[in-house]
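Thread: "does anyone have the structure for this chain?"

Original post by V.I.:
We have the sequence but no experimental structure in hand. Need at least a predicted one for the grant figures.
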Amino acid sequence: MKTIEISETATLPTRYGTFRIQAFKEGCREHLALFTDPLPETPLVRVHSECLTGDALGSLKCDCGQQLDAALELIAREGGVLIYHRQEGRNIGLLNKVNAYALQDRGYDTVAANHQLGFAADERTYEIVETILEHFGITTLRLLTNNPKKIESLKGIEIVERVPLIIEPNPHNEAYLRTKKEQMGHLL
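Reply from O.Q.:
Generated one for you, C-alpha cells below.
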C-alpha cells in the first residue's frame, strides 16, 4: 500500500458556501477534499475527476465544469464531500488530452481519440477515493455521479443512493455526451 500524506484542514470560503479543505498526497499526485462541517450521517459525495479545460477554463467541449459547479452547490446545501480526483483527461494527462482534442477536431469521438493515442477509453483508478472516505469515517453515502465505474469502484462503502448529475447539453458537447452514454455506459 502506498503511503498517503495528509495535510491539515483549513477553511475555504467559496461562491457556493464555506467549506473545509484538506489535501491527500499519493506519490506525486495531490487530491483534494472539500467538505461541510459537520458532515451528515449519510453525506452527499462527488468524486470529481480533474478537468483543467472544463473546471478552470470553462470549456464547452465537456460537461465537467458545469458538473463541478452543480456538485458544489448541492454539497454546500445538503452537506457532504467533494473529492477533487487528480487524474486529468481520464488519467492520460494534459498533453495527451490536448492531443485527443486535436483528434476530436478531426472527427474522432472521445473514446476513439483515446484509442488512437494508445489508451483505454478511461484510464482512471479510484483506490485513493476509499482511503479519503475512510479518513472521514464515511461508510455510507449518497453518490453524486453518472459514471457506473465510480459506483463499482467503491467496494467497501455502502451507496444508499445514486444522485444523477445531468447537465444540459450544448452544441459543442452533444456528441461527447452521446459517446459517454452509448460507449462508456454513463447513466445520462
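V.I.: this helps a lot. The helical segments are 52-56, 64-78, 88-91, 93-105, 110-116, 127-135, 148-153, 174-184.
O.Q.: and The chain has eight helices and eight strands.
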